[in-house]
Amino acid sequence: MTSTSFYQAPQPAAPFHPGALVIATLANPREKFWGAILHLSHVGLSLRGVDLSSFDDFVAQIRDGEPFAAGVLFFPMHRVERLELDLPEGTIPSLAQRFAQKTGQDPAPMLVSEFLPSAIENAEKSHSLTGHSETKPAETRAAETNVQRGSGKTGAAGDKLR
Fold it and tell me: CA 37 to CA 23: how far, in whole Å?
């Protein structure tokens, strides 16, 4: 008799994923940036954020309702010395928590919304790739289905053409 195990080995964590809030320490020249990862690869780091020395000014700008001005930056990997998640340490809040406390807004969606599609947009894209877009009228979807099934060509109103 063989036994079947339903145990699955835990998947490795990927903490430095697109959308993660990080502090990047760079070399030559030495700089620190806070922001959200847009893309991370062996080539480099794409980040949307601000120089750490400008963080308080950035927070004040958002709190005062001024236009959003975080840069989209690319750093080649040879400059990336250290990358750390923006996490609280003991009683010291993370930069994201400080941002939220002072502005009343979550920084992550603000930083990535233009560059990383939401789950809803991903679902819409997958529907459009399969030809089942929810934005099409039911008649159009039905006519497309008829053509795909080989029932003949259809006109604009779904009438069969002879």
Answer: 10
Query: How far is 64 from 132, CA to CA, in rounded Å?
Result: 44
| Predicted model pTM | 0.65
What type of residue is 134?
A: E
How far apart (Å, rounded) are the C-alpha atoms in residues 103 and 4?
A: 53
Q: Nearest 5°: phi and psi at 89?
A: -125, 105
Contact 134, 124 (CB under 8 A): yes
Structure tokens at 28: 């030559």
Question: Any idea how long the chain is?
Answer: 162
Q: What is the pLDDT along the chain (162 residues), one digit of tens a residue?
A: 555 556 666 766 789 999 999 999 999 999 999 999 999 999 999 999 999 999 999 999 999 998 877 889 999 999 999 999 999 999 999 999 999 999 999 999 989 988 877 532 433 443 344 444 443 333 433 433 333 334 444 444 444 444
